Amino acid sequence: MRTRVMPKECLKSVTKEDWVDINRRPYVKGDTAWIPVKDGFFFDCILDKKKGYLGRGYHMAGDIAIFHGDVPDKKDLDELIRWENPSCILHIHSYEGVRRIPKINVLYGKPKEICLKENGCFFIFDPSKVMFAMGNREEKRRIAEIVKKGERIADMFAGIGYFTIPAAVSGADIHAMEINPDSFLFLKRNIEKNRVEENVISECGDCRDLLKGEYDRAFMGHFESYSMLPDILSHMKRNSTLHVHSINDISAKISKECKIAGFKPDISLHRVKKYAPHKWHVVQDVVLL
């Protein structure tokens, strides 16, 4: 690949230059960038073709690389550093307790805050301190498309705003509740960053103590949220909708609680992603008739 060598800080300023080959990715290492050059234009040097990634699976949050599952070995780390040149590599073993605090190992670099743009929304967070569900992107997009302007929505496990922000951008009015103080601080910043202050009322605490009034819709984005169905059902109206997240189908449990509360539930199931062998992260859309 023919390249021109420039400081990394020049990347954005040259992207529209007529000599830049936009069909190839620049190579960046440290503060230096090797920018692809079209045929017929001056170039500084030729880079060998980059070999494909040969390591185990990971995902990127900004320029931070994240491993789940078993701790990666040195070979996997070296391969990921070669391929992505991340600022930091984290191994997240699990998310603990009701506050969903990440249990982490820092394998390379230093954790930091990032700002991620997803489906047109901005999310500021530090993946070493709070949870961010990368695999829920399509579910967030789906929610943003189905909520209606002016709906009053309870987001019972708001986190940093995974569903609050897309729904508010779509014009809904959100009552966002989050029990983790760190997540709540990022939630407040993301509300401001996305300029949806007029659409969101946010509170830090246990959602069971914060629910008030009636809602047109409720987001229940925690795998144990079905245990709180009696709490939210007393605040729902006819023809309102619950979005209950779980591992595998729990429609029977949901139906039982809805009937006890005096509703006839119409339940449809949506798969979000594979969670583990024989386990799926699913969402039950529950229309309360």
Main sheet specs: 7 strands, mixed
CATH uppermost class of the largest domain: Alpha Beta
Strand content is: 35-45%
Number of domains: 3
Distance between the termini: 62 Å
**Sheet with most strands: strand arrangement:** 13-12-11-14-15-17-16
CATH superfamily of the largest domain, called what?
A: Vaccinia Virus protein VP39
Task: Estimate percent helicity.
Answer: 10-25%
Mean pLDDT: 91
Q: How many helical stretches?
A: 8
DSSP strand count = 17
User: Which class of secondary structure composition applies to the elements?
Assistant: alpha/beta
CATH fold naming of the largest domain = Rossmann fold
Shape: elongated
Radius of gyration: 22 Å
Identify low-pLDDT runs. Answer: none
**In the CATH classification, which architecture of the largest domain applies?**
3-Layer(aba) Sandwich
GO molecular function: tRNA methyltransferase activity
Domain SAM-dependent methyltransferase TRM5/TYW2-type: 58-289
Organism: Methanomicrobium antiquum
Keywords: Methyltransferase, S-adenosyl-L-methionine, Transferase, tRNA processing
Structure notes:
The structure is a single chain. It is built from 8 helices and 17 strands. The protein has 289 residues and is an alpha/beta fold. The chain folds into 3 domains: 2-46, no CATH class; 59-112, GMP Synthetase, Chain A, domain 3 (2-Layer Sandwich), CATH 3.30.300.110; 117-288, 3-Layer(aba) Sandwich (Rossmann fold). The strands form 4 sheets. A 7-stranded mixed sheet has the order 13-12-11-14-15-17-16. Strands 2-3-1-4 form a 4-stranded antiparallel sheet, with no helix packed on it. The longest helix is centred in the middle third of the chain and has 13 residues, at 181-193. The N and C termini lie far apart (62 Å). The model has no long low-confidence stretch (mean pLDDT 91). One of its GO terms (cellular component) is cytoplasm. Residues 58-289 form the SAM-dependent methyltransferase TRM5/TYW2-type domain. This is SAM-dependent methyltransferase. GO terms for molecular function: tRNA methyltransferase activity.
